[in-house]
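In this supplementary section we document a worked example of the pipeline. Step one takes a protein sequence of length 220 as its only input; no multiple sequence alignment statistics are reported here. Step two produces a three-dimensional model, which step three serialises into structure tokens for compact storage. The input and output of this example are shown verbatim.
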Amino acid sequence: MEFKRWKNLSEILPQEIEEFASSFFKKEELLREAEELAKREKVPILLPSAAQALRLLVSLKRPRRVLEIGTGIGYSTLNIHFAHPKAKITTVDSNRKRLKVARELFKRAGAEIEVVEGDGLDYVRESLAQGREFELIFIDSAKGEYPFFNYKVQALLPKGGIAVFDNVLFRGYVAGREFDRRYERGVRLLKKFLQGVKDYPGFKSYLLPVGDGLLVIEKT
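The serialised model returned by step three reads:
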């Protein structure tokens, strides 16, 4: 079975909806190139409806500093940059091959983005030790790591800051869709993560059923 996401389509939205959303979304040519590359190389990127939601959040929040955990080939990073070019973006990933592609795309976009090759959790711990703050944090990494990022990420947000987690509905498995047993641990951890965020004191959480599911946490 080939998942729809290799065609930049959502597993939780009807295909015609995601395709219409993609056609409605006015993209920069560089993003179109990145999408075609992702299809050819089967690289997971932010899906069209989720990309629009992220750009809307960035446009409304206009964060000064942004942290992204999980650069991939830089598709989400560029969406953030194009939505608010004045934001200072730091993006972290351990995949050297994909970072090479991302750096080239950033260069072509004229975007001065700080790229850190390393482990996302390590960078978050370092940021906490250094007292850094980010008005927007976007996390698109291994789903089983989300519960471990959780409280650490909250501590990096100033009042009014938001953290956005991608893929929280995991092809609909988290919402009850049948899945292969090999995904059992990831689904269980995501469910635990989503259940917990609803009760955080000092935070509001919003679950957006776009792309593969976006969770937005706002520090109040």
